[in-house]
Amino acid sequence: MMRIQWFAEMLSERGIQLSERQNEQFHIYFKLLVEWNEKMNLTGITEEEAVYEKHFYDSLSLTFFKDFNQVKSIADIGSGAGFPSLPIKIAFPHLKVTIVDSLNKRILFLKHVVEQLGLTEVSCIHGRAEDVARQADHRDKYDLVTARAVARLASLNELCLPFTKKGGYFASMKGASPQDEVDESVKSLKELRGQVEAVFNMALPFEQSERHIVMIKKLEPTPKKYPRKAGTPIKEPIV
Ligand code: SAM
């Protein structure tokens, strides 16, 4: 079932060959997103082509800049309706995925999607990142941590770097101009033991709006005092 031809073709140009089953999984995901969106607020984007471009393709753009065949585990902080982690999991089924979101309604949606798509090794956790990152199972554990549209980078460093293992990466997915956020995050990077390694950019294929991915390397384990208590990283960012 391939409804959106350009999607599979453009991914194929990037070296990602989707099987019929994977194309079907994207289609079911789209249908569930629109269906559940009528009952709860998941996304402002519901037109099929737009969902494929602004949610699915945008989420997968991270995989254009990092070799996901070398990545084993990812954590997606503030995943909302599953972005970017679920499109990445569909395209790279070997991944072990942990999703953390503080809104239980969204977690219930995500668990339903995971079940309907038949995805394995996806764990959807209801909780604040600040609390979950204190648990030994999740602290300094993940090869790659992602966050899209959750907070400014100075706050995200404190929410996401505690999940990232030493030598792993936090990929912050940003819009048109992240430079001011990068400039603002010098102190939080130092405190959370992160270092900006690269800033990648790309444009969405049709809408053409610009996107950036700030790739941050975790240099050392997380100092004991971080993250601070839930709510503080966003209310009082380390700047
Ligand atoms: N990443 C998704 C996307 O790109 O479409 C969702 C973005 S949505 C604007 C932000 C999400 O982050 C919400 O689902 C919210 O519940 C979650 N969130 C905000 N603060 C959080 C925290 N401290 N811990 C976990 N989730 C959080």
What does it look like?
The chain has a seven-stranded mixed sheet, with helices on both faces. The radius of gyration is 17 Å and the shape is globular. The protein is an alpha/beta fold. The protein has helices at 5-13, 20-37, 48-60, 85-91, 104-117, 129-132, 153-160, 179-184, 186-192, 232-235; strands at residues 73-77, 96-101, 122-126, 142-148, 164-174, 194-203, 210-218. It has a domain at 65-220 and 229-235: 3-Layer(aba) Sandwich (Rossmann fold), CATH 3.40.50.150. The mean pLDDT is 97. The chain is built from ten helices and seven strands. Helix 4 links the parallel strand 1 and strand 2 (96-101). The protein binds S-adenosylmethionine (SAM). S-adenosylmethionine binds at residues 77-81, 83, 100-103, 106, 128-130, 148-150, 159.
Question: What is the mean pLDDT?
Answer: 97
Do you know the CATH topology of the domain at 65-220 and 229-235? Rossmann fold
Q: Which structural category fits the helices and strands?
A: alpha/beta
- Record the strand order, biggest sheet: 3-2-1-4-5-7-6
Bin the strand percentage: 15-25%
Task: Encode the helix/strand succession as letters.
Answer: HHHEHEHEHEHEHHEEH
CATH architecture of the domain at 65-220 and 229-235: 3-Layer(aba) Sandwich
Largest sheet entry: 7 strands, mixed
Secondary structure blueprint with pairings:
Layout (H helix, E strand, L loop, with lengths): L4 H9 L6 H18 L10 H13 L12 E5 L7 H7 L4 E6 L2 H14 L4 E5 L2 H4 L9 E7 L4 H8 L3 E11 L4 H6 L1 H7 L1 E10 L6 E9 L13 H4 L4
Parallel strand pairs: 1-2, 1-4, 2-3, 4-5
Antiparallel strand pairs: 5-7, 6-7
S-adenosylmethionine (SAM) binds next to β2 and α6.
